[in-house]
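REQUEST FORM: STRUCTURE PREDICTION
Request ID: SP-0412
Submitted by: Lab K.M.
Chain count: 1
Length (residues): 282
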Amino acid sequence: MAIRAEHLNYVYGLGTAFEQRALKDVNLEINDGEFVGLIGHTGSGKSTLIQHLNGLMKATDGAIYYNERNIYEEGYNLRALRSKVGLVFQYPEHQLFEINVFTDVCFGPKNQGLSREDAEKRAREALTMVGLDESFYSRSPFELSGGQKRRVAIAGVLAMEPEVLILDEPTAGLDPRGRDEILDQIERLHKEKNMTIILVSHSMEDIARYVDRILVMNQGEKVFDDTPKEVFKHYKELEAIGLAAPQITYVVHSLQNHGVPVDDNVTTVEEARDEIIRLLEK
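STATUS: Completed
RESULT:
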């Protein structure tokens, strides 16, 4: 098991007049090789939660286990943990700072103590993983498109060879093509490297298409934890907490209301297409 959280609580401004509980008794497990989606409206606690998973924030109480070791135990190496549980923040291009793409991606492995030769090897491999060839190496990261900047930022984390990759809204602000390219690259990493992925997203379509399991946060609490098909059956409850299901879910229920026997397990456009073809052939 990659990550386990037990009775996790976090309070901002503890002991002050501005005290605010951001996480409330959160329990969860992330298994090795899973592709997990994390959703919730603004202020639901999802960004606070992911910063606990690699020790950037410390819980007010509760525990986080990585590979069955409590990261809060005395002497635990949090720096090593952050190399193994990589976090790409929302708008990750704000993390870029070096003179060129290649130097930027080398920074993480060099900071891990690797030799220049090994760091450069890691950087080349990581840039290849995200689909950037040598023509990008000498370019300033600030001259790239939004989607290319995201790829460089993700490569910078991948170069540290994490076992778990956490991405906070990695497609925010991108056009549809850029969004699909980034998510397809992430899916490829998951499949080819068996990498554990946690994807925070506001796009229910993307969540339905890519992840194996969804965690839903509301007001600091975990309210659903199941497959996309099961979670999106609760679309009315999701609406009540400021979320929604993929648009195709509403199309399916509209068809059912008009007497068309469409399978309500459909959550993607591709599945809807196949289901409609199946019904027509009958």
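NOTES: The first strand starts at residue 3 and ends at 12.
Reviewed by: T.R.
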